[in-house]
Design brief:
Radius of gyration: 24 Å
CATH class of the largest domain: Mainly Alpha
Structural class: mainly alpha
CATH topology of the largest domain: MetI-like fold
Family: Belongs to the binding-protein-dependent transport system permease family.
Order of helices and strands: HHHHHHHHHHHHH
Distance between the termini: 12 Å
Pfam family, one: BPD_transp_1
Helix content: over 70%
Membrane topology: Multi-pass membrane protein
Number of helices: 13
Main location: membrane
Oligomer: single chain
Largest sheet: none
Shape: flat
Organism: Actinoplanes missouriensis (strain ATCC 14538 / DSM 43046 / CBS 188.64 / JCM 3121 / NBRC 102363 / NCIMB 12654 / NRRL B-3342 / UNCC 431)
Number of strands: 0
Length: about 325
């Protein structure tokens, strides 16, 4: 329990530091986003409207930096992430809530599938050296070094076209309205197949390679020899002794992968113009939309911290050495 509380305190401090940096960094960037918005509307805003925009965006010139920082925290605690410059006057929270499910479903499902599939094949390849599964190593080594977006470009070139089943861009067919019905859901699944396939092929290879190498290392340990000497079945030794200990580094990597689900496939979403958080971040960067960038960075930071905390909890369950009383 003491170990868990120490880790929790560490992550709370890290979250405070990340949010503080998230507040200061945009304010250090040169430029005036309000004047950029005035230019966008070709000077049609009155002076009072411009002053109101400074207040709305948390850039009040009469307020001190400390008061802006306190106001920023109050807004965060109430779920207010500000107004987007690009989609003004739409709130940032609304934009993120509309795009986040797309990324979570696409990247979340493929990450979980690739982890379990890659870990299972890695256990088989590491324990049964010389088998067909171990023969996959050259292919997995090559695929694990290939970026997602490069596979996406190749997939678009080879698998899309006028008569192809796979769409080359977008999240659903034009003319449809997002809804949980029999028209929208099949269209959304069809548009997500090709991006999901590119993520799955590239990521599953890394899990196979890392798990296989750990299984080979663990298989030479003394406690594996003792387990065989006790007369335990080969399957029990592989799963309960070897795989359980070899799994620890993969659990940490899996936690990080879950944390980066929100923004880890930015280039894939750009290549396929997929309406997720990564594509929204790309648009925000192009338009210098500081509130939207702040909101997305905040979501990514929190998701990474929560994923790491879950990884620590998993370590407590899998490895007794991490528990003080153990």
């Amino acid at each position: 329990m003491k170990y868990f509380l120490q880790r929790l305190a560490f992550y709370l401090f890290t979250a405070w530091a990340a949010i503080t940096l998230n507040f200061f960094i945009p304010r250090l960037i040169p430029g005036d986003p309000v004047q950029a918005l005035v230019t966008k509307y070709q000077g049609q805003l009155s002076s009072k409207a411009i002053e109101s925009l400074y207040v709305l965006f948390g850039l009040d010139k009469d307020a001190s930096l400390w008061s802006e920082y306190v106001t920023y925290w109050k807004q965060l605690l109430t779920g207010d992430l500000g107004l987007s410059f690009t989609f003004f006057p739409t709130p940032v929270s609304e934009i993120i809530s509309n795009s986040l499910p797309w990324t979570l479903l696409l990247v979340g499902i493929t990450t979980v599938i690739s982890f379990f599939l890659g870990t299972g094949l890695g256990i088989l390849a590491g324990w049964r050296r010389g088998s067909w599964a171990d023969g996959l190593l050259p292919v997995t080594t090559f695929l694990s070094s290939v970026p997602y977006f490069w596979l996406g470009i190749i997939a678009i070139y080879l698998l899309t076209g006028p008569d192809s089943f796979f769409p080359s861009s977008g999240g659903f067919d034009a003319g449809l309205v997002p809804a949980w019905d029999l028209y929208f859901i099949p269209s959304a699944i069809q548009h997500s197949l090709l991006p999901a396939l590119t993520i799955l092929i590239s990521s599953v290879s890394g899990w196979i390679l890392s798990m296989r190498n750990m299984m080979v290392t663990v298989a030479s340990e003394d406690y594996i020899t003792v387990a065989h000497a006790k007369g335990l079945s080969d399957r029990r030794v592989a799963m309960s002794y070897a795989a359980r200990n070899a799994l620890l580094p993969n659990v940490s990597g899996f936690a990080l992968s879950l944390g980066f689900i929100v923004g880890g496939t930015l280039l894939v979403e750009i290549v396929f113009s997929y309406p997720g958080v990564g594509f929204q971040l790309f648009q925000a960067l192009g338009a210098s939309d500081y509130p939207l960038m702040q909101g997305i960075f905040l979501i990514i930071t929190i998701s990474v911290l929560v994923a790491n905390l879950l990884a620590d909890i998993a370590y407590l369950l899998l490895d007794p050495r991490t528990r003080k009383e153990g």
